[in-house]
Amino acid sequence: MRVVITIQHPGHVHFFRNPIAELQARGHDVHVFARENDVAIELLEAYDIDHEVLAGESDGLLSLAAVQATYEMRLLRRAKRIDPDVIAAIGGVAAAHVASALRTKSIVFYDTEHATLITKLGYPFADVICTPSCYRDDLGPKQVSYPGYHELAYLHPDRFEPDPSVLEAVDIEPDEEFAVVRLSSWGASHDVGHGGFDDPHEIVDRFEDEGVRVLLAAEGEPPADLEAYQFSTAPDRMHDLLAYADVALSEGATTASEAAVLGTPSVYVNPLSLGYTTELEEEYGLLFEYNGEMRHVRGLERAVSIVGKSREPWRRRRDALLEERVDVTELVVQQLETLARTSASNRSAHATTTSER
């Protein structure tokens, strides 16, 4: 079967890299097309995933529209030559539009309820929309719900084992307590008008007062006087680091949930709550979300209160999560194969009917 997968964000690389390998191992023809965004291309190269870059980065909503139009036009031309049985994506605006134009099938994976621009542009054209069971919106008959999270496509223990050598790479001693602090750029379409931490300097000072090392991961440039806290390691090693951190404090939901499914206590500071961040808090106690006016103060206090204690309770909570949630890679492959077979069968029947006429 011929499968097209589109990549527009680093998180998409992580999500699809295991399904791509599994599909290829089963003999399917997989074509990957990407748009430059942060370290997405660097990750594709790090994982040795053959791909073609169709468009560059954008620096705002106006340029995003132009880049997206270029991306869709080029994707349409490439896909027309390939004649895919299915086109897959996260969010899936370009994938759904192109598949609709080519009269093939599209499948969209998504977990972000408040990204209304993406959902309004993409969902009406998609054939199947796969969402975690905690997703808050009812999308009708197109929706396939599953008990899992995007992060379990690449951080399930069957797919990932953390490498302790990452500690040496960032100059952390084996018994040294440290926190990973993730700052967002707030440049995505669904981030407009929102923000997380009041003052990153206060976070660094508070952790250091407790004897906790701070490793800063900033999307874009960090404040100039905090550059010394920005750690340097290959982007594909971030998950190793999260697995060994004592706590993760993040403005981004993806990093917060990655830490949580790895069994690292996670504090999510953001005015926008999500179905999966709420479930990780209420069902498993692995994540704590703060989205009110005092979110910065309350989130920081919670993060500081976690360090210095046994990690065993977090391991037990993670075990409970893994008992009830699926290996999402298996789900992705099964959905793609099923939809591709349906698409191939429909097109074969259409060709037969046309020839008979």
Q: Features of this protein?
A:
17% strand, Rossmann fold, 5-stranded parallel beta sheet, single chain, globular, 357 residues, 12 strands, alpha/beta, 2 domains
**What's the CATH topology name of the largest domain?**
Rossmann fold
Q: Mind telling me the CATH superfamily name of the largest domain?
A: Glycogen Phosphorylase B
Task: Please state roughly what percent of the residues sit in beta strands, choosing from under 5%, 5-15%, 15-25%, 25-35%, 35-45% or over 45%.
Answer: 15-25%
Counted by DSSP, the helix tally is: 13
Low-confidence stretches: 186-194
Number of domains: 2
Cα-to-Cα separation, first versus last residue = 27 Å
- Determine the mean pLDDT: 90
In helices, the fraction of residues equals 40-55%
CATH architecture of the largest domain: 3-Layer(aba) Sandwich
Shape: globular
Q: Which strand order spans the largest sheet, edge to edge or round the barrel?
A: 3-2-1-4-5-6-7
Helix-strand string: EHEHEHEHEHEEHEHEHEHEHEHHH
Nearest-angstrom radius of gyration? Answer: 21 Å
Q: Which CATH class of the largest domain applies here?
A: Alpha Beta
| Biggest β-sheet strands, sense, barrel | 7 strands, parallel
